[in-house]
Design a protein that fits this description.
This protein is mainly alpha-helical and 191 residues long. It has five helices and three strands, in the order αββααβαα.
Length: 191
């Protein structure tokens, strides 16, 4: 004979599960970025020689196969150790954030999870190139910007999401964490 489920238990369990999934969703985002980046780079390397370019989208976009041993805009060229340490730091921060968030009753928000996943997935994808080829494979050429790749785009979007959440969306989730110190439930000042 089964016992009846106490009222509210299912809702609490569902809320806890949703928080857990949100906290660790960054791993799925990172894996998706890593796979998309590495597959797109493999396709470019199989079809274009380094320096070769083909037109796409009526000339608005080109695929241009380049190798970049530096960071954005060629900065820090040849500094492999710096990139290994920086990538390790990004991934470590994402893991630490997830562990810390696991102890909090408030949901961290999907934007934070997606931002961490995109940024860390992009960093790991570019690190994989550096370790394998000694440089990052770049290929998306819009002519108004330096040639970049899927990982670079993911890093930019991920950092933008994190900045947006930090600067604009920082108050979201406040109700789950309780009232602000010094204020009652209705927002009135407590004396």
């Amino acid at each position: 004979m089964s016992r009846p489920t106490p009222p509210g238990r299912t809702a609490r369990h569902a809320a806890r599960w949703a928080r857990h999934v949100t906290r660790w969703a960054w791993v799925a985002w990172a894996a998706l970025v890593l796979a998309a980046d590495q597959l797109s780079k493999a396709a470019v390397q199989a079809r274009l020689a380094v320096g070769e370019s083909v037109l796409l989208a009526g000339g608005w976009v080109r695929l241009t196969h380049l190798r970049n041993s530096g960071a954005a805009f060629g900065l820090f060229s040849g500094q492999q150790a710096l990139f290994v340490v920086a990538t390790g730091a990004v991934v470590a921060l994402a893991v630490l954030w997830s562990c810390r968030a696991a102890a909090s009753p408030a949901s961290p928000g999907r934007g934070v999870s997606a931002g961490l996943g995109l940024a860390s997935g992009g960093a790991v994808a570019n690190l994989a190139d550096r370790l394998r080829h000694g440089a990052v494979v770049d290929f998306i050429d819009v002519r108004l910007w330096p040639v970049f790749n899927v990982a670079d785009a993911a890093i930019v979007v991920g950092v933008a999401l994190l900045a947006w959440r930090l600067l604009v969306g920082g108050g979201r989730g406040r109700a789950a964490a309780g009232p602000l110190p010094g204020r009652g439930r209705g927002g009135e000042e407590q004396g």
